[in-house]
Structure formats: structure tokens, C-alpha cells
Amino acid sequence: MVTLQLLHKPSLHTLFSISSPQHYQQQPSPLPFHPRLYNVPRASASSSQKGPSTGRRQLIAETAAAAAVTASGFLIGGGNKAFAAAEEGLSEWERVYLPIDPGVVLLDIAFVPNDPSHGFLLGTRQTILETKDGGNTWAPRSIPSAEEEDFNYRFNSISFKGNEGWIVGKPAILLYTSDAGENWKRIPLSSQLPGDIHHRGSGTRTIREEERPRFFDSKAKQLCWDNAETVPGRHPQRWRKDAAGNIVLKRFHGCQGCLCFEFDHILPFSKGGQSVVENCQILQTRVNRFKSDKQDLKKNQLKGYSCDISFGDNELDIIEMAVYGDVIRLGKESRCRTINEMPDKNKSMDQIAA
């Protein structure tokens, strides 16, 4: 369990709830802040103080905070630069502790319109927290349909309309509820959706869906993984080598590190490539970004885009243990031992302490 702070730093870190209207003064705003109506170019402690340029994460944090205040009287924030509610009198804040791992970045918050005491908080590392007491306490929420695939989803946004709600994440995932979040089901996503796309703005325009699927489906991804080169001595459903020879870890799909990877079109989609297993390869994320829509690149060219780092077996063991909780190597399966299984030589020499 950690204590978080949000607007004081670029990452979300603390939830504060309003306990009583005292002390904090803010110049009234002609309209309540709403993230879909305003752009926030600069963060400040008050309307009369100018602060440094706002980074992307901080901007997201502030937007989420303002949305929470508008919807339910809650603010994600912290430190002496916390956002205050647009209404006068909302001033005293109480720290709320969140049951999340260090390093988790919170990205969005929403409360059920018909039940302001019921809300959800989303973040990286497949984080979903739920409150049913107006935000005083939060508990992890598990959604089994979001855990079927071997991905570590980043839940980016949540919104409600009445009792209907939607959660969107990356890699592409859409969760839907029709009963105010009591039950969530996963909506299968296809890059070739039926019908047309309608965009409402100043007018209505219709864009025809492309006939070619833009993304690989789950079957193609699994076959693409299975076709990739194996890593000697390591479990093939956990470790593979990409087209440049870089080692990647299956649970690190879609992230930015040197063991992360993406599914790539060998013949770029923009140049007519199909989203089928025959046109699929796994590439270290960094390599895939540099490759972009280039084609006919040789292995040594792809290697030139790669992270200039290598991992030994001991380092890979540590990473695998941290991610999966165990290490599977041919003939060398490993798990954490209990105290009773420890050899006598590791016991304390102080018999009283032992």
C-alpha cells in the first residue's frame, strides 16, 4: 500500500476528499471546469500565479482531477499546487490511502451518475480500483474477462452515461457495463467493424470503413509469437527473439522497454500489407518505431535500431521471477522456498534470535 500524490508531480499520486468548507480561497470561475470544454495549457497554485509548462502526465492528472470535482466533489491532487474545486468553499482535504503497487500511474476516475458514492479509478499495470463509500476507501476490482489474455493492460479512460459505462485500455480493450459497474463484460474489438463511422461535430460526416483489418486478431498474434525464434533454455511461451534477434518477454507486449515488443506488418499496412499471420513478425518496440513503414529491411538493419544492451541468464531469471513469480527453464524450474525449506547454514548463529 502506498500514498500517492497527483498534481504536485507529473504522475498521479494521492486522492483527497473534501471534509469541510474552510480556509482555502479561490477566485470564482464563471463556469465549472470540464475537461471536454477546456484546454489546460499551464498549471498553477492559483489563478494569480504562473507555473512551469505542464507535462503530458501532469495535464492528464489535472484533467482527471477537474473531471472528478465536477462530477462528484472529489479531487485527485496533492501538495501546495493541488487543484481546487471551481465552487467556493471546497477547501479542506483528507488523504486517502490506495492499495496499489509503487510505480502505478493513475490515469482516470469516474463516478456513477445515479450513485455518486460508487466510483472507479484506473491506471497502468491493469489497475482498477472501486469505491462504494464516496471515495473514502478503495479496493482493487478484478474483471476476469480482462485477464484472459497474457497482457498487462493499461486502462486509460472510463466514462458513464446513466448506468452504462465503458473502460478503454491499451493494448486495445473495451469493457462495458449496463448495471453501473456491478458487472463488466468485454466487447470484442475488430479492426473491421460493421457499418459506417459517424462523426458528430459542426455537422455529420460519414467515413467508410476500410475493408482490410488494420490490426492482427488474437489468433494471428499467437501464431506470430509461435513462429518467432525461441530463446535457448527458456520457456517458449514466455520468451522469444524478434526479427532482429532481440530477446522479448510475452507479458511486455506494447510497452517501451528493451524487452518489450509489438506485432509488426512485414509489408507495411500503408503499402497494402494484410493483417494476417504470414505478414506478421514480432519486433522490439524501439525497432518497430524506427522501422515505421519501411520495407525490405535486412536483419542487420533492424539490429541497428535495437537497444544496445544484452541480458545474461541470471538477469533473465530475475526478470522472469519478478513478472511471473517463478522461473521455468528446462530442468531448472524454480520457485520461492519457505523458511522451513531453507538449509541450516542460513539460520542465525544467535540461538536466542533463531
UniProtKB/TrEMBL annotation:
Signal peptide: none annotated. This is Uncharacterized protein isoform X3. GO terms for cellular component: photosystem II. Keywords: Photosynthesis, Photosystem II. It holds the Pfam family PSII_BNR. Residues 90-196 form the Photosynthesis system II assembly factor Ycf48/Hcf136-like domain. The keyword Ribonucleoprotein does not apply. The keyword Lyase does not apply. One of its GO terms (biological process) is photosynthesis. It comes from Coffea arabica (Arabian coffee). The gene is LOC113717386. CDD domains: HNHc.
